[in-house]
Design a protein that fits this description.
Order of helices and strands: HHHEHHEHEHEEEEEEEEEH
Number of domains: 2
CATH architecture of the largest domain: Ribbon
CATH superfamily of the largest domain: Umud Fragment, subunit A
Structural class: alpha+beta
Number of helices: 8
Radius of gyration: 22 Å
CATH topology of the largest domain: Umud Fragment, subunit A
Strand content: 15-25%
Number of strands: 12
Oligomer: single chain
Largest sheet: 8 strands, mixed
CATH class of the largest domain: Mainly Beta
Distance between the termini: 30 Å
Length: 238
């Protein structure tokens, strides 16, 4: 399902129920055919049959599940970034990407198992109210994105879109727009980060910016994600 969702976005229209059912059926048939071919390849290459063949298949499936689970928990995950988050980070999107309701991007989880997020990094985070159970089941989850502005202990203030960090103007070469919105002086508590979009013309509440608990930060935008973002959106500074 995670593979199917980005496809209709490239067409610029929503798929009909019939198109969705047809796409699911095609993917399931192709996946099933691929499994049959792999099964026959193991049987022929290793001259296995009966119990030995099924034991090899069971072992391969178990190893695949273990590796997939380890990757999902510790290395990377993929999420759907909604349109309002895209607009908050890329105000110069072209007409084609603007038609997309969401963009499918990968996030690096491994880095934040080794070190905490750093100021200036673009991170994916779980929005308030997002249920983790169905998203884990489908391996397709909603992720908002924002740039790390303040670390725990920092004092952050936004005046007409411009950030003042610990009382001093912050150097933000990525900032665009921003004459409408201000945020009063906020001290970032332990276990939280202060996130903002690069487009300061967008309301912070629209993309759930501001203080975000560390437990909701899922990873940073990877090099692959950045390349995909540039391909879909067009412009961006990282």
């Amino acid at each position: 399902m995670a593979v199917l969702a980005p496809l209709p976005q490239a067409w610029g229209t929503r798929p009909t129920p019939a198109e969705t059912v047809l796409a699911v059926a095609i993917v399931l048939c192709l996946s099933l055919w691929g499994l049959v071919l792999k099964f026959k390849a193991v049987q022929v290459c290793y001259d296995l049959s009966g119990r030995r063949l099924w034991s090899a298949v069971a072992l391969a499936l178990a190893l695949h599940l273990v590796v997939s689970r380890a990757e999902f928990m510790f290395i990377s995950e993929r999420g759907f970034v909604p349109k309002q988050a895209i607009q908050a980070m890329a105000p110069t999107v072209g007409p084609s990407p603007a038609l997309r309701d969401r963009v499918f991007l990968p996030f690096d989880k491994l880095t934040y198992h080794l070190r905490p997020p750093r100021r200036g990094e673009t991170v994916g985070f779980v929005p308030p109210g997002e249920s983790e159970f169905p998203s884990r089941l489908l391996r397709a989850r909603v992720r908002f994105i924002g740039r790390v502005i303040g670390l725990p202990g920092d004092e952050v203030e936004v005046r007409s879109g411009r950030v003042y960090l610990n009382g001093r103007p912050s150097n933000e070469p990525y900032r665009l727009g921003g004459l409408q919105h201000s945020i009063p002086l906020t001290k970032v508590p332990e276990g939280h980060y202060f996130l903002l979009g690069d487009n300061r013309d967008r309301p912070v509440a629209e993309y759930y910016g501001g203080l975000v608990p560390e437990r909701r930060v899922r990873g940073r935008l990877t090099e692959v994600g950045q390349l995909r973002w540039k391909f879909l959106v067009g412009k961006g500074q990282w």
